[in-house]
């Protein structure tokens, strides 16, 4: 786990991503997080997880820059690993400093709770790339913030600031930027202080078949992403983002 560390203290496991400053993901990173979660599930000394990142941003999504590897996201391989995150048994609190963008938003939403600051930013920017939402956001985002708010975020691709995120239910707690990680740890510690068997059972009841619904939806998301990846609009969206300009989409 070269880009992931796990530190357990007082029944709280801190899972930290080390790909600063943007913490772009690929399937290896998501697999490493899933592996960490499964190991934590089996560890009686860990009853709650804090998911956090080193650097400026929680997770700026996949690196689609033309100079990068556009296949690094791993497609179906990545989504199989993502489903493992939703299938894990231990509650997760995400400490979202900076931005959670695209698939990074999907990663943040995979957690049970999100702690952020007024400076935090959340975006499902897929349509601004000429792309389809992924990471199960087609299921998880409407369930979290409602159908209309999810439509707004996905169809416009706009960035949502921390205070608006809290108002819509995307962020559970808003604190000073310097306090995000500590507040997430405090929330995890509060969960860890409850009876662990009861916590796991109650969480499983409330989440229901979420992991299976995410599995089914990521299959569909991948089909749409594969189709749209071949379009001129996707190429234009990636180029415009890299060049920091407004995209000129043509519907082809």
What fraction of residues sit in β-strands?
A: 15-25%
Do you know the CATH topology? 2-enoyl-CoA Hydratase, Chain A, domain 1
Question: How many strands in all?
Answer: 9
Report the average pLDDT across residues.
94
- Low-confidence region ranges: 66-72
- What's the story with the biggest beta sheet? 6 strands, mixed
- Estimate nothing, just give the exact number of structural domains: 1
Q: What is the name of the CATH architecture?
A: Alpha-Beta Complex
Oligomeric status: single chain
Termini distance?
A: 41 Å
Structural class comes to alpha/beta
Helix content: 40-55%
- What best-fitting shape do the alpha-carbon axes yield? globular
The CATH superfamily appears as 2-enoyl-CoA Hydratase, Chain A, domain 1
Main sheet strand line-up: 1-2-3-4-6-9
Topology:
Elements: E1 4-9, E2 12-17, H1 27-41, E3 48-53, H2 76-87, E4 92-96, E5 99-101, H3 103-110, E6 113-116, E7 121-123, H4 137-145, H5 147-156, E8 159-161, H6 162-168, E9 173-174, H7 180-192, H8 196-207, H9 210-229, H10 232-242
Parallel strand pairs: 2-3, 3-4, 4-6, 5-7, 6-9
Antiparallel strand pairs: 1-2, 7-8
Helix pairs in contact: 1-2, 2-9, 3-4, 4-5, 4-9
How would you characterize this protein structure?
The N and C termini lie far apart (41 Å). The protein has 252 residues and is α/β, with parallel strands linked by helices. The protein has one domain (1-175, 199-252): 2-enoyl-CoA Hydratase, Chain A, domain 1, CATH 3.90.226.10. It has helices at 27-41, 76-87, 103-110, 137-145, 147-156, 162-168, 180-192, 196-207, 210-229, 232-242, and strands at residues 4-9, 12-17, 48-53, 92-96, 99-101, 113-116, 121-123, 159-161, 173-174. Helix 4 (137-145) crosses helix 9 (210-229). It has 10 helices and 9 strands.
């Amino acid at each position: 786990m070269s880009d992931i560390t796990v530190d357990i203290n007082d029944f709280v496991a801190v899972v930290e991503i080390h790909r600063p400053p943007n913490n772009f993901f690929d399937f290896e990173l998501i697999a490493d997080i899933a592996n960490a979660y499964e190991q934590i599930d089996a560890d009686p000394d860990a009853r709650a997880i804090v998911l956090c990142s080193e650097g400026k941003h929680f997770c700026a999504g996949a690196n689609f820059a033309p100079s990068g590897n556009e296949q690094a996201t791993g497609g179906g391989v990545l989504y199989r690993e993502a489903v493992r995150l939703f299938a894990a048994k231990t509650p997760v609190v995400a400490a979202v400093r900076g931005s959670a963008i695209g698939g990074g938003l999907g990663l943040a939403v995979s957690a049970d709770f999100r702690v952020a600051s007024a400076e935090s930013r959340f975006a499902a920017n897929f349509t601004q790339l000429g792309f389809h939402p992924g990471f199960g956001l087609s299921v998880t985002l409407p369930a979290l913030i409602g159908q209309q708010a999810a439509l707004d975020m996905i169809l416009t691709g706009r960035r949502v600031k921390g205070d608006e995120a809290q108002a819509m239910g995307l962020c559970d707690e808003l604190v000073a930027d310097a306090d995000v990680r500590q507040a997430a740890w405090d929330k995890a510690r509060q969960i860890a202080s409850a009876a662990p068997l009861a916590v796991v059972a109650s969480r499983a009841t409330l989440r229901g078949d979420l992991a299976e619904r995410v599995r089914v939806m990521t299959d569909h998301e991948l089909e749409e992403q594969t189709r749209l990846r071949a379009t001129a609009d996707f190429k234009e969206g990636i180029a415009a983002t890299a060049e920091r300009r407004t995209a000129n989409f043509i519907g082809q």
